[in-house]
Structures are given as structure tokens and as C-alpha cells.
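Protein modeling request. Please complete all fields; requests missing the sequence field cannot be processed.
Requester role: graduate student
Desired output: 3D structure, C-alpha cell encoding
Chains: 1
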Amino acid sequence: METPFPPFEPNGPDDSARGPRLREIPLRLVVPNLITILAICAGLTGIRLAFENRYELAVAMVLLAAFLDGIDGRVARLMKATSKFGAQMDSLADIVNFGVAPALVVYVFALDQARSLGWIAALIYAIAAGLRLARFNVMAERENKASWQSEYFVGVPAPAGAMLVLLPVYLGFLGLETDRTFAYFSSIYIVLIAFLLISRLPVWSGKSEGNRLRRDLVLPMMLGVVLYVALLMSYTWEVMVFTVAAYLISLPFGARRWRRKYGTLTIEEPGVGDDDIGRHI
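Delivered output (281 residues):
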């Protein structure tokens, strides 16, 4: 069979008909996405380890996932490799690492003793984390951002929620008996953390560019960080319990600072409410 003649093209070959050409992508654009993928792998591996009753490794993997998920955006900005694809990947990783993985780990460790109530508590937390992340994405996409957004979070951020919700696991590692009573109290605690995630409580972020540290406090602060890390490596679960308690105690102080500055107990602003929900569903 003879090969047919190609069609006559008076203006030359039409490259658009061939589809998009493959092009090389700079490595710096791939690195942040690889970190995000590693974070998802760590979170999912933490779930598997929990079902295998290897709880300490499970918690370590969930915390590692939260750490990796927290630095991928910063790495992208430092390498000037931000992209819409990376932002979508990061959002999908957040719901796994900050919502699903911690909820399942704490359920397998303690909440299953409470039967259906424990599972309901885990579901409430996972859904609350998803709602919290959706609200964050909506606020981040707004062109005109409020001045306070660089200083305060609306509700407890999802990464902190993942750390807080694992408190029953930390206490179990310290020898507290994980019986049915413990499971019931843990379920109530997890529902409270879920409420903090979706609340409009002003939570100080510490990211404001106006916050500066006195020069004489720089070295003591650096030594304090070194001491904290050293204690964390030696007394991991005791330090994690202390960190959770310190974070929860700090919440009323952040809200009090907001009230002194803006005169309200919660963050109420037009533009983050029913209209936003209607536009983005």
C-alpha cells in the first residue's frame, strides 16, 4: 500500500496539530513537589504503622509528615519555584497529613475502646481539618487581604491541630492506661480540638514583619531552642505533652491581645462567610 501524500499546507506545517511539545523542566521546580510527595508518603506510612501496633514510629512519621508539609512552601519560595500545581499538591497533602493520618493514629491507639463514639470523634476531627484548610485556601486566594492576616490565624492552624490531637497518644506512651474511660475522655478532647480548628478564635501566628527581637535576647533565644531540641530528643513524649499544654495555655493570651487591639473576642470580617462558601462550592 502506497503512503498517501501529505496534505498541501501553503503556510507551512501546522505545529499546533501535533499537540504540546515536551520541554525540559528545571530541577528547582520539581524539588518542592518531591518534598510534598514525601510528606504524603510519611503520613500514609504512619497510618500503616499504627495498624501494625508500632505506635511510636507511627507518631514519628505523622510528625515528620507535618514537618515536611510545613517546609515545602518555604523551599518553593526560596528556590523561586512556586506554581499552581504545587499549591494544589500541597492542599491535598495537608488533608492527609493534618487530618486523616492523626485521626486514624489516635483512633487505633485509644479511641477504638470507645467504639462508635471514638470513631465519630475521629471523623469530626478529620472533617474539621478539611474545613479549616478550605477556609485557609479561600482566604489566601483573596486579592485584597486584611492587614491582620500576617499576624493572626482564624482558628487553630491545621499543623498545630495535628500536634494537639495526638496528646492521648503521648500520654499513653508515658504509661497512662488506655482503657475505655481514657478513650471517652480522649474523644471529648478531640472534639474540642476540632472545634478550635473551625472556630474564629484569633490565634497569634508570630509571622508579622513588625515583630522584632531585642539584640540582647537573640543569643538566649538560640540557646533556648537548642535546649528544647535536646530535651525533645531525650524526653520526647514528656516534651510533647509540655508543648501541647503550653500551646493551649497561650491561646487565651493571643485572643486577649486581639481584643485589646480590635475590640472583639473573635475574628469577624465581611468576605469570609456565606458568600465565600457559596462562591467556592
